[in-house]
Amino acid sequence: MGEKVGTKFQNVKGTRDFYPEDMRVRNWIADAWRRVSLRNGFEEYDAPIFEYLDLFTIKSGQEIAEQLFNFTDRGGRSLAIRPEITPSLARMVNAKIHTLPRPIKWFSIPRLCRAENPQKGRLREFFQWNIDIIGDDSVLADAECIFACVDFLREIGLTPEDVKVRIGSRPVVLAHLRAGGVAEEKLETFLLLIDKRPKVPPEAFGALCEKEGVTKAQMRIFDEFDSLHEPDRGPPLTSIGLTNDQCFPHLAQVDALFTHLEQMGVAEYCVRDFHVVRGLAYYTGIVYEVFDASSSLRALAGGGRYDNLLEVLGGPKVGATGFGMGDVVLGILLKEKGKIKEEVRRGIVKFWVIDAGDNLLGEVLRVVGALRRKDISAGYSSEKRGNIGKQLKDANRHGASKAILVRHGRVAIKDLATGNQADVPTDQFLDDPKKWE
Questions:
Q1: Residue 101 confidence class, pLDDT cut points 50, 70, 90
Q2: What is the tens place of the pLDDT at every residue in 214-237?
Q3: Are 321 and 391 within one domain?
Q4: Which terminus in the chain has less CB density within 10 A, N or C?
């Protein structure tokens, strides 16, 4: 069939077009992710954008399974576009488990896709920063990941008054549920309800519980978990009255984690919250989520320990922990808090070279070429030569910090912020242009 004349195409619902000004913000975030990862000792990796379907359904949980973009290829193989990258990471590590030095500290910034209903903070296509440590069973590995997360939050100007890392423990929650008489087949249901409790009104939560068959006697379990929420970090968890002996080792682990976070100087960002259980079924230990301080947005990030995932995917039992941070909610929060500076949104050309004489195109191109060869960004107006005012407008539109007005044998270096100007021979300027940046 031929193309329809006059058809107007739009981007698919839940996706984004990145115009240059949007790309500058996206790259600013990704550059900060990469910079923080490297200084915290993580190495970058990536994986295919689609994998075998079973890789994502075997242990990720019902929510992820329902959000897959999956298809059958021409060979009859069931494939899926990645909704997360952790299973791919586990597959890659399993393939070289005997040769990779441990602990493995890797990071990635993949494009991910989930077939879910788009809403504020949730899209079908997004970018996500992933930090993982594999081969370290100690709580220090969890502290390392949380530190990297907070290191990034600080890097982009978010303070403890802006965001909080809410930390819980799945084993504590599961032990308490079992002690409260919750049947094994109902544990996942109760985990989801605990996760929902602080996010919905009491009436809606009661309706959810009724729908899931929760008895009135079992409702007390949720009240007990409310008492475990310590917004001010409070006393050690082992002293606040949770009497189930099976919880104590895990409570002590959370206490140890907070001790390490205090020692590393990031505890002010962190609070204990046992409502945090995470939706993915492969989590096995400490879990955490990052929220804006007012909790008006979805989680910025989430992660925890997943000690069984490599084994489930055919490898040995190896300790693993990590988190993911998406760019969608983060972008909303940064805009709300005014953390994206104007220079990020503007162009990145440092010098705008202006024809200030009588048709000096050749000299303009000589200066532009010399600057670019010295790794200095430079631009010029191709159609407005002779009109200095219009060329200066181009300079401002492209975010240039300096205008270089080219005359016969000389240039004037004009600071576009202050209006200050210096006049020097052209060759003298080109000998050391970085002096004028």
A1: very high
A2: 888 888 888 777 666 544 444 444
A3: no
A4: N
